[in-house]
Amino acid sequence: MHTLQPVAAIRAIEQAAQAALPAGTLMQRAGAAAAQAALALLTIPPHLSTILVLAGPGNNGGDALDAARHLAEAGANVHVLLCGDPSRLPADAHQALLRARAAPVSFCHDVPPLGWSLVIDGLFGIGLKRAIDEPLRTLVQAINALHCPVLALDVPSGLDADTGAIVGNDGIAVHASHTITFIADKPGLHTAAGREQAGAVEVAALGLDPTSFPASPLMLSGPELFVHAARPRSHTSHKGSYGNVVVLGGANGMSGAVLLAARCALYAGAGRIYAAFAGTVPRHDVLHPELMCRAADGVDLAQSVVVVGPGLGTSAAAATHLLRVMAAQTPLVIDADALNLLASESTLQIALDRHAAPLIMTPHPLEAARLLKRSASAVQADRLAAAAELAQRRRAIVILKGSGTVIAHPDGRLAINPSGNPALATGGTGDVLAGLCGALLAQGWPEWEAALGAVWLHGHAADMLVAQGIGPIGVNASELLPQIRRALNACVSARQG
Questions:
Q1: 333: which strand partners?
Q2: How far is Cα 194 from Cα 181, in angstroms, rounded to an integer?
Q3: Do 269 and 439 touch, CB atoms closer than 8 A?
Q4: Cβ atoms of 198 and 152 closer than 8 Å
């Protein structure tokens, strides 16, 4: 399992290691690991490369200085911009400075107008508490405008390692193409602005044993967390073996949301799928006559997983539908307009508190903000905390959608999903995700594994499309469905293998 460690735990691990090792050992290991990562990024031999190393005023700068020394000794043309008073460097960083000065490294006072092969960002690490200000703000803007690889050390400067938010109001962060993070992986590298700013992430444990680290409730999601729930199909099975899904929503003018969710439940293997419409009921789905179309107020909810909310609207009639669904005490996926109704109606909140069956909620940041009675920007400032709070309040599995979707369990477990790309930034993809959650629940997946699996498969389907040259621009939600089917079958095959 790929666990993530918050900053407080990293500091405790680091302090314990420093007490057991000779002074400066971790910094020298970090510098060596950074240099190795940098050399791997070069597309030309080291002696033909020109590398800019930005060294900040703390220990992150010391890591950069040791990396510069190793790169220069490997034959690279290395220029170091030391951003801080050398006399005020911490002890280990000062020793790294002395080692760099003894190597064939060029120190400069500004950024020379050279064609850089690589830039190494060692300005600020995990300890930054305020926005990067001048003159370093202008320096970061200049680095972000370059067209060469940028390797961040530990965390891109300006990024909060816990939350993935950019530090400070109107803050700025280095936009790295790659990040080598030390000791353990950090949650902020994988959610909010983190995925954009950190690029490809590599972990260097610096010789420490990860099995000795404290247990963490944070994890990076992947098939290993849910594939055990994917059951191979028996030759003696039938449609009743794979559950019923009711997708309830579709007020007039919004029937497409129900159809997308229901079609995804079909592609993801549910046995029977009912598309239940709050508005006009179509006679059948032209593309998929396998779906059974019903009126929302007459559909039988018993013995079904219910996905409620896609295209439901927020009328009084919609609230009545939601109340009936929650009273049915069936496994439930609450999405879209149903979430907005919950946020505004105390009667519905009381009914939800009485709901005892498995429950998954799938808010985007604005929907989560309404449920938590705060702003969307506050939710985005700490996505992990927002998802955890909502999960505990509602005793539900919460899927907080967005870049680095967060999945939260009421017991405190948190997972960040690494799959997906901007192809998902189009109408209907949320409906597809809700239908996928419902289909996995209907097939007997526990709600935690169903949420993890649905989010990963949903994102992976978008990744598969982009890998085939389809997107990210112009992908539509319906194109995800055959890719989800393919990925889900691959998970079952992997389990059998």
A1: 307, 360
A2: 13
A3: yes
A4: yes
Question: What average pLDDT does range 285-308 have in this prediction?
Answer: 96
Identical fold for domains 2-216 and 223-496, yes or no, is no
* pLDDT of 497 over the 80 cut: no
Angle between helices 255-267 and 480-496 (to 10 degrees): 30
How far is Cα 274 from Cα 294, in angstroms, rounded to an integer?
A: 7
Domain 2-216 has CATH 2.60.120.10: no
User: Residue 331 is encoded by which pair of tokens?
Assistant: 């496994």
- CA nearest neighbour of 41 among 27, 31, 53, 51: 51
At the top level of CATH, which class does the domain 223-496 belong to?
alpha beta
Cα pseudo-dihedral 272, 275, 276, 279, rounded to 10: -170
Give Cα 344 distance to the centre of its chain: 28
Q: What is the pTM of this model?
A: 0.97
Q: Kindly give the residue spans of alpha helices, DSSP state H, lying in 217-274.
A: 255-267
Does the structure show a pLDDT above 80 at 496?
no
pLDDT tens for each residue of 372-412: 999 999 999 999 999 999 999 999 999 999 999 999 999 99
Q: How far apart, in Å, are the Cα atoms of 372 and each of 185, 192, 340, 376?
A: 29, 18, 11, 10
Distance CA 249, CA 229 (A): 28
Bridge partners of 416, per DSSP, are 220, 406
| CA-to-CA separations, 450 to 28, 137, 231, 320, 355, in angstroms, rounded | 43, 43, 12, 27, 19
Domain ranges of the chain: 2-216, 223-496
pLDDT(453) > 90: yes
3-state secondary structure (DSSP) of residue 256: helix
Burial of 421 (0-12, 13-18, 19+ CB in 10 A): middle
Question: What is the separation, in whole angstroms, between the first and last Cα of the chain?
Answer: 19
Cβ proximity of 221 and 455 under 8 Å: yes
